[in-house]
Amino acid sequence: MYRVLLSIVLLFPIIGFSETILKFSSEGMNMKLEKVASNLGVVWGMSFISKNRLVFTLKRGKIGILNLDTKKINYLKNTPKILYNGQGGLLDVQASPSFKSDKLLFFTYVKKVAGEGVTVLAQAKLLDNNLKNWKELLVTKSATDTSRHFGSRITFDEKGHIFFSVGDRGYRPNGQNLKTHAGSILRLNSDGTIPNDNPFIYKKDRLSEIYSYGHRNPQGVFFDKKTKQLWIIEHGPRGGDEINLIKKGANYGWPIISYGKEYWNPLHVGEGTHKKGMEQPVKYYVPSIAPSSLIVYRGKNFPKWNGNLLSGALKLRHLNRIVLDENNKFVKEERLLKGLGERIRNVIESPTGYLFISTDNGNIYSIKNE
Fold first, then answer.
1. Integer Cα distance of 343 and 302 in angstroms
2. Mean predicted confidence (pLDDT) in 259-267
3. 3-state helix/strand/coil string of the chain
4. 149 part of the active site
5. Annotated active-site residue in 149, 161, 268, 318
6. Average pLDDT over all residues of the chain
7. What pLDDT band is residue 129 in, cutting at 50, 70 and 90?
8. In Å, how far are 112, 120, 156, 276 from 176, measured between CA atoms?
9. Which CA distances in Å does 24 have to 29, 30, 335, 367, 368?
């Protein structure tokens, strides 16, 4: 009987479970961090499908739906076959902007192709706790023999486009190679077709899905519907994590320019920090924080954070808040939740304007007003 009860506890958080972990303040606002689920594994992606239901991905390959009222989790059937190795696995999930009517979920994950891992964008329909009609929208041309730098986050604009990121796959020249999807932000129509106004469409020796390039490993991508701007945050090497405002067809410099250093010696990566024709970051981090996700906060519950960028940090284990001015120039930074001591993998805003974060310890937390 004890073993049966223990198995139930491991499968589902206790119904009604809620525990205040930390109280903190920012800009005069008092907040609290509450644990809403635990013992899950690495929670890589999260997306709300209603005000009280949260779909999430586990890097090892499982997909669950957390009911925030009961704290019960249902794990979905018919999940994709993934390559779970190194930094690869089941990555992001985002509900369709029209989820109420089309029931579509979009996923990125790593798949083995000819013995090597590639990042895949796929969609499936959620029906009765089952994922049906799986469709791979793009199996990227990004294969290398490494197990790192797959990306990958998903975001939507308001014109029917989907953006997602692919890292350089551990091979630096990919950042400047337009014949590979690696090291790029990609843009498709939500049905998987290529938009006619993509910057490199129908151009020789350039893949039509590429929207911007010169990226190392972007693990945060977010379209701000208020400003109509696309933001990313990406891992640098030893130093040089970057927040970038994405311009159509632009080159962000990796590995030719970087604010980071080599892992094996104190030399800077590339030719320097600036080069004509290559974009500068809005913000860079030295030393690295190892950023894992990115949003622009637009909720009403924390009004003094309106328009701030929020990112999880893996290496330095905190919630990173960036304040910009009206010209998108860096003003200041705040590092929150350092006392939690967990690698923050993802941060999202709920439909009601609260924040939810996930950690590599297998926990999901809410951030609310105290």
1. 23
2. 92
3. CHHHHHHHHHHCCCCCCCEEEEEEEECCEEEEEEEEECCCCCEEEEEECCCCEEEEEECCCCEEEEECCCCCEEECECCCCCCCCCCCCEEEEEECCCHHHHCEEEEEEEEEECCEEEEEEEEEEEECCEEEEEEEEEECCCCECCCCCCCCCEEECCCCEEEEEECCCCCHHHHHCCCCCCCEEEEEECCCCCCCCCCCCCCCCCCCCEEEECCCCEEEEEEECCCCEEEEEECCCECCEEEEECCCCCECCCCCECCCECCCCCCECCCECCCCCCCCCCEEECCCCCECCCEECCCCCCHHHCCCEEEEECCCCCEEEEEECCCCCEEEEEEECHHHCCCEEEEEECCCCCEEEEECCCCEEEEEEC
4. yes
5. 149
6. 94
7. confident
8. 24, 21, 25, 14
9. 8, 6, 11, 10, 10
**pLDDT for the residue numbered 266:** 87
0.85 exceeded by pTM: yes
* Residue reference for tokens 């586990």: 58
Q: Which of 4-13, 84-93, 193-202 has the lowest mean pLDDT?
A: 4-13
Torsion over CA: 49, 85, 310, 97 (sign): negative
**Tens digit of pLDDT for each residue in 146-169?**
999 999 999 999 999 999 999 999
Spatial separation of the C-alpha atoms in residues 155 and 110, rounded to whole Å: 18
